[in-house]
Amino acid sequence: MSDAVRQIKEKLPLLDILQEYLDFTQAGDSWKARCPFHNEKTASFHVTPAENVFYCFGCHRGGDLFSFIQEHENMTFKEALVMLAEKAGVILDGQIKKPSTNSEKLLALMRHAADFYHRQLLLDSEVKQYLVERGLTEATVRLFRLGYASTTWDSLTTFLKASSYTEQDMLDVGLIIARKDAKGGYDRFRNRIMFPLNDPQGRVVGFSGRIFDARVENKEKAGGKYINSPESEFYDKSSILYGYDCAKKSISYEKSCIIVEGQMDLVMAHQANTKHCVALSGTALSERQLTLLARSATKLIFALDADSAGSQAVTRSVLATLEKDLDVAIVQLPVGADPADVIRTSPETWHKLLEKPLSYITWKCRDMRNSDARTLRSILIRDVFPALLSMKSPIILERALQEASTHSGYTFETLSKEFRTWQSNNKDALESFEPISDSLSSKALTLDDTSSDTSRIGTSSKESRLITLSNLIHLAKQRTESNENPDDVVVYAEEILSRERADWRERLQEEPRALIETHMMYGNAPLKHIFQSIREVTFIIKRDILTQQRNNLHIELRRSADMPERRNELLTSIQNIDSQLISLNDLYHRE
Q1: Domain map (residue ranges) of the chain
Q2: How many C-beta atoms lie closer than 10 Å to residue 172's C-beta?
Q3: In a structure prediction context, what are the per-residue pLDDT tens digits for the chain, which is 591 residues long?
Q4: Of 3, 130, 482, 588, which is least packed with CB atoms within 10 Å of its CB?
């Protein structure tokens, strides 16, 4: 085995293989790239060709070719050895079970079938013109090796037989269908644009065929718009993502992946230079597909068709994605359009849509205000609450509840209560939830509170936030150039602190340990990240203050049943606070 490993390393230089996954730039005697194993903006992943090893100074992973493939492709050592031996042309000498001779033969058959379909397309001017009209360039057609299956019943069968393959071989991989009343079979794919389906290593394992409408004589007998290969030894639809073999390098670089529905959407997206894109091929994301994407991506961007089927696929996929603790965004496509339509009409529009995707909660709740109460509650329980349950960060959860409140018309408190009730009644809900504002309500600091006990500063969540906020503002001012206007969120945060009592500010400045910790955590962070942290802490503090004020007004409102004038004053004050909460939410969520 050691001899096989040595041969593989000699034939496959580490840098050559890793360049299939990452974009490198030279740095002295080494080459550097953004690490595929953790999220970073500055390249800290280094390869030293002389030593044939890699090391990341960010996450401290390191090793050789085999350890990289094991980590990146989620393989065992044996699986990585078999894959790399095949790539290097090294024969494994019985130390590890190799793929059977028949398996190798069938994979070669699939490759020859793809070559046959591709040549058929290149020789057919009508089909090529159709693809041009759909917006594809010849370079894209060749890159994805698109093909055409003719209208005859046995063209592929005849070609493969001439290449020494048997009909049983073709049956085993689903390229032909057995005849019911006679021996042999006939071509499964006829009069179809052919999309080869590759595994992550780029091997053809199946096909998807789209009907070529221009040559359909009998629509009833033509079959579905798309038909796919049946599952086989190599093809498992729950583990294959169309285009992943072409996209994996860009996914590692971008740390995100765009999810589209169909093959045509995918090839158009790559043509538009959004190469970190894969296609579902008509199904929601499976556990195996998510595991594959989670190796390199921290965020999934769904750009599925704007119809009911696409909406349902997004919902199912998003709930599964949130369970993996990945970020989620939704591209709002024009009604009746798919990504291929948008890109063909205007690639610029496609890129603009990708620049400002919606959160899942906003996307799901955007039409809630026009729904009746029964429909609204159904949407919340079916599509929104399960997503909230999957959010592991309290801050993210609170933000999502606030979004749902904004779009549904329900107050934050009402939604929180409804969610907790649903959660307690849901047998699958294993995680507990307590909104931050509820946990702090007994000690929330109001703007006009003059009885707070400052002797315990630093012991509560609210007080620690005030300390953190003060230190972040101090750090932001140090990092801001003297001739540069401060970010408006800093100004807003300072207003909150300035409205607290003087002795609070004095105590806040007497926390050197907290100041040191803030510098250690944020000292090297980009200024915009510091502003974002200020925005988050300010949002929570101010929201809690306003929420407490509104709760106090509601209590007084219930006690003023016999005082109409006072009730009107209280209702006006409550409305004013609601307006402030909306403005606060807008400030926090602005770009």
Answers
A1: 2-88, 101-228, 244-358, 368-434, 443-589
A2: 18
A3: 578 888 999 999 999 999 888 889 998 888 999 888 887 778 999 998 988 899 998 888 889 999 998 888 767 888 888 888 888 888 876 555 444 568 889 999 999 999 999 999 999 999 999 999 999 999 999 999 999 999 999 999 999 999 999 999 999 999 999 988 777 789 999 999 999 999 988 899 999 999 999 898 887 777 888 999 999 988 988 889 999 999 988 898 888 999 999 999 999 999 999 999 999 876 678 888 998 898 889 899 999 876 655 577 778 888 888 878 788 999 989 888 899 999 999 999 999 999 999 998 888 887 666 677 777 777 888 888 888 887 777 777 888 888 888 887 788 888 888 888 888 776 444 343 333 333 333 323 222 332 333 222 333 455 666 777 777 777 777 666 544 445 555 666 666 666 554 444 444 444 444 555 555 555 566 777 777 777 777 777 777 788 788 778 877 877 776 787 787 788 788 878 877 776 666 655 554
A4: 482
Domains 2-88 and 244-358 belong to one CATH topology? no
Q: Does residue 554 contact residue 537 with C-beta atoms inside 8 Å?
A: no
Place of tokens 């079916």: 382
The model's pTM is 0.63
| CATH, domain range 244-358 | 3.40.1360.10
Domain 2-88, CATH among 3.10.450.50, 3.40.50.300, 3.90.580.10, 2.120.10.30: 3.90.580.10
DSSP-derived 3-state class of residue 147: strand
Q: Token pair of 402, please?
A: 């606030």
101-228: in CATH 3.40.50.150: no
Cα torsion through 162, 167, 168, 172, rounded to 10: 90
Give the closest residue to 343 by CA, choosing from 330, 355, 333, 328.
Answer: 333
The residue assigned the tokens 């603790």 is 325
N-terminal to C-terminal alpha carbon distance within the chain: 56
Nearest C-alpha neighbor of 189 from the set 110, 238, 117: 117
Residue 376 is given by DSSP the state: H
CA distance 117 to 146: 8
Cα–Cα distance for residue pair 101/297, rounded to 1 Å: 36
Write the DSSP symbol of residue 98.
P
By CB atoms closer than 10 A (0-12, 13-18, 19+), residue 175 is: buried
Gap between the Cα atoms of 340 and 265, Å rounded: 5
How many whole angstroms separate alpha carbon 335 and alpha carbon 309? 13
